[in-house]
Amino acid sequence: MAKDKPAKAKGVPNKHLHSRSTFLYQAATYLTLRAGAPDPNQALDSAKSSGAPQSRHGLALQLVSDLQNVSRKGQVRLSSELKRTICKTCNTVLMPGRTATQTIENESKGGKKSWADVLVMKCMRCGSKKRFPVGAKRQKKKSERQPPQAQTSLSEKSAEDPTSTVSPMQTSTDQASTPG
Ligand SMILES: [Zn+2]
Fold this sequence. Notes:
Bound molecules: zinc ion
Strand order of the largest sheet: 1-2-3
Region (Disordered): 130-180
GO biological process, one term: tRNA processing
Pfam family, one: Rpr2
InterPro entries: Rpr2/Snm1/Rpp21
Number of strands: 3
Strand content: 5-15%
Radius of gyration: 31 Å
Protein name: RNAse P Rpr2/Rpp21/SNM1 subunit domain-containing protein
Number of helices: 6
């Protein structure tokens, strides 16, 4: 009678793609960190790994490019937080103080408008900039916004209309009959 339906018990779709993209991002972040930091092993065998930081950075770039390919081919959307930390031009993982600089710009008159604050992330490798508004409140999605007032008044009218337009003749006769 009761059939087992394994298809119903579905978890995260494309879980393997998510785990793969997460791994790629973490590995790229780690390698970027290591590439920037002074290598303790480098002092021991400096001759061997003289070009290590550069190759690490190259590998990190490759991983980020793989991450984007996984996202593109598997149609897995990367989170906006993740995308904000990746340079679109050169695929560097942006880390403030290491591979990127963070500054706040305010182009309003005299910087008076606090909601005009813009966070500018500049990639140290290629110099490209990302700009995020931070002072302004984010506008709601279209579906979450309240419908315009004209529409609500229209719907109210249409709700009232049936009662008033049921029989205009009758109301006029009623009015006529009441005084008399
Ligand atoms: Zn860059």
